[in-house]
Design brief:
Layout (H helix, E strand, L loop, with lengths): L2 E6 L8 E7 L5 E9 L4 H11 L4 E7 L8 H7 L8 E6 L8 E6 L2 E5 L9 E6 L1 H6 L1 E2 L9 H16 L1 H6 L9 E2 L10 H28 L7 H9 L1 H16 L8 H28 L4 H27 L10 H25 L3 H10 L5 H15 L1 H28 L2 E4 L4 E4 L4 H51 L2 H9 L4 E11 L6 E9 L2 H8 L3 E2 L7 H10 L12 E2 L1
Parallel strand pairs: 1-3, 1-8, 4-5, 8-14, 9-13
Antiparallel strand pairs: 2-3, 2-4, 3-10, 5-6, 6-7, 11-12, 13-14, 15-16
């Protein structure tokens, strides 16, 4: 049977002493975590391991002979009686060689691994970088067919190293009666800035939580929960983004410590996303308020609105004539054309009425970018919706008229075939009609059929204009959702510390010297970029109804309205 010993690279040159670690249950494997140096008192070693609070044991002895320590190996061999174990490892390394020698003492029998023995006494050393394994998070392999034995063993190895963190923090280095060698033997990794941020995070989180509590109580007041206010706030992208960021800040500033890995990564991704969002917003504010760009934008906005209104008037004049040589119903064409022209004149009057206040409105709207780039993009979407409200009205009028015509024709067509729609059973049933009903139905069907080209043309034109606006708003919402949901912290770990997100491991031969066991090096395979995005993407709210392309085309053909509004109850992972 093969004995696998996971040995940390930081202990390759450690002084002689005891091996501290853990036997993996159900596997003929041992994980070495640290080396306790000689001299030591066995009672202090037992007490030290007990105080660590980690399920550890003394695996065996480690011998690194030096001058004046000729009898050290025999002394360490006799320690197996003080630390009784079912299996006792005796590892030794000669100066100038990379490979180790291994003796396994089991049930008072000594088995020697010489590298050429049978299968029952074969030993394999697997070297690993203790720091990377302890800080990494192992993810399941998505593609491929992994070895079931290796797949069940790796999480136990990673979990053993990760759970041994209290053992390293308990080490007081020069002040401790027990000297150890591990990945933090030269001192703990730390930063003054990080420690100061940890100390300052508690009062900042408490203050932010108090402010968010006041804001939440204000938003839940009766005045703001009146039905018109609630309806308007649910349709405005800015209000939805504000509630979304409030929820994010409540998650980040929660006093509950993030113990689980997924909870920690969610908090970190939200915090980094919020920080990048605010930074981009401040850059946008600094760019907007330079060189009087607000005034230039205000002076350009009103002429642009006049130009759009003029183009719409020319389009309506073209539709009121003979568009593309088509023969239209002149009476209905004139009524619809004048109706839409009247709306355009109202819109132009509204724009010119608001023109003296445009610059002031833009000046205050630009300050909202201090809350983040997503707020500025959400405001841009809402302003676009307000400036194109007349196009939306044209689309609704044309869609309703076209929808009534189509459904009227389909109902009258069933009348010709002696059918009717059963509302209660939701099906088409047979029905007998008298002569008057058939005459009126034929008359209405003829009228609607000849009016259909005119209504369909107006509906087609205004639907295309509406789709242009919806596509622009869709691009803006995609940008907002990308900033809200993209796992920036996880992607940063994948790029700069790829070992933190592990998908598996790979082995390479480290040493194959005669007379010594096989030595392998365990390297961490980082998680794929696509898997990082899929695993750690922050859940967002959908921007549009989740309709398929077929359902969308069916709605457009039947004249049903398409509302590109955010649905807060629909959450997408």
């Amino acid at each position: 049977m093969v004995l696998k010993i996971f040995f940390p690279q930081c202990c390759n040159k450690a002084d002689s002493g005891l091996l501290v670690g853990r036997w993996i249950p159900g596997q003929n494997s041992a994980v070495v975590l640290a080396v306790i140096h000689y001299p030591f008192i066995p009672g202090q070693v037992k007490q030290y391991i007990h105080q660590s609070g980690v399920d550890l044991t003394v695996l065996g002895s480690w011998s690194m002979p030096k001058e004046g320590q000729e009898g050290m190996e025999s002394f360490l061999r006799d320690l197996s009686t003080i630390f009784p174990q079912g299996q006792w490892l005796q590892l030794s390394r000669e100066m100038g060689k990379i490979g180790f020698r291994c003796h396994l003492v089991q049930q008072e029998k000594e088995l020697k691994e010489d590298g050429g023995g049978g299968e029952k006494d074969k030993v394999i050393f697997i070297h690993y970088e203790q720091r990377k394994v302890m800080l990494s998070q192992l993810h399941p392999i998505e593609n491929g067919v992994p070895d079931p034995q290796t797949e069940s063993q790796l999480p136990q190895v990673f979990g053993t190293v990760c759970q041994s963190e209290p053992l390293f923090f308990l080490d007081k280095y020069d002040d401790s009666p027990v000297k150890l060698t591990h990945w933090q033997s030269e001192g703990r990794e730390g930063s003054i800035i990080v420690e100061l941020m940890k100390q300052a995070s508690t009062p900042v989180c408490l203050l932010t939580t108090w402010i968010l509590t006041l804001w939440t109580s204000l938003c839940s007041s009766r005045i703001l929960n009146v039905r018109p206010m609630r309806f308007i706030s649910s349709k405005l992208s800015t209000c939805v983004q504000l509630s979304y960021r409030t929820e994010h800040l409540q998650t980040v500033c929660s006093p509950t410590r993030a113990t689980a890995h997924n909870h920690f990564m969610r908090k970190a991704n939200i915090f980094v996303s919020f920080f990048v969002d605010v930074s981009l917003g401040l850059l946008l504010v600094s760019w907007i308020y330079r060189e009087n760009r607000i005034g230039k934008l205000a002076n350009t906005l009103v002429p642009a609105a006049d130009h759009v209104a003029k183009e719409l008037e020319e389009l309506l004049q073209w539709l009121m004539g003979a568009p593309a040589g088509l023969k239209m119903n002149r009476a209905l064409d004139q009524v619809l054309g004048r109706f839409f022209l009247y709306h355009i004149h109202l819109w132009i009057s509204y724009i010119h009425l608001m023109s003296p206040f445009v610059e002031m409105i833009l000046w205050y709207v630009g300050l909202s970018a201090c809350l983040g780039l997503t707020f500025a993009l959400s405001l841009l979407s809402d302003i676009t919706a307000l400036l194109t409200f007349h196009i939306y009205c044209f689309y609704v009028y044309g869609a309703r008229l076209y929808c009534m015509t189509v459904y009227g024709l389909s109902s009258l067509w069933r009348l010709f075939r002696g059918k009717k729609w059963n509302v209660l059973r939701q099906r088409v049933d047979s029905c007998s009609y008298d002569l008057d009903q058939l005459f009126i139905g034929t008359l209405l069907f003829t009228i609607l059929l000849f009016l259909l080209p005119t209504t369909a043309l107006y509906y087609l034109v205004f639907t295309l204009l509406r789709l242009v606006v919806v596509m622009f708003q869709g691009v803006v919402h995609l940008g907002v959702d990308f900033i809200n949901s993209f796992p920036l912290f996880a992607m940063g770990l994948r790029l700069f510390r790829s070992y933190r997100l592990a998908e598996g491991v790979k082995f390479r031969v480290l040493c194959e010297e005669p007379g010594t066991p096989l030595h392998l090096m365990m390297d961490i395979n980082p998680l794929k970029v696509s898997s990082v995005v899929q695993t750690y993407r922050t859940p967002t709210y959908s921007c549009y109804p989740k309709d398929s392309w077929l359902a969308l085309c069916k709605k457009l053909f039947l004249g049903e309205l398409i509302y590109p509004w955010k649905h807060k109850t629909t959450k997408i992972d």
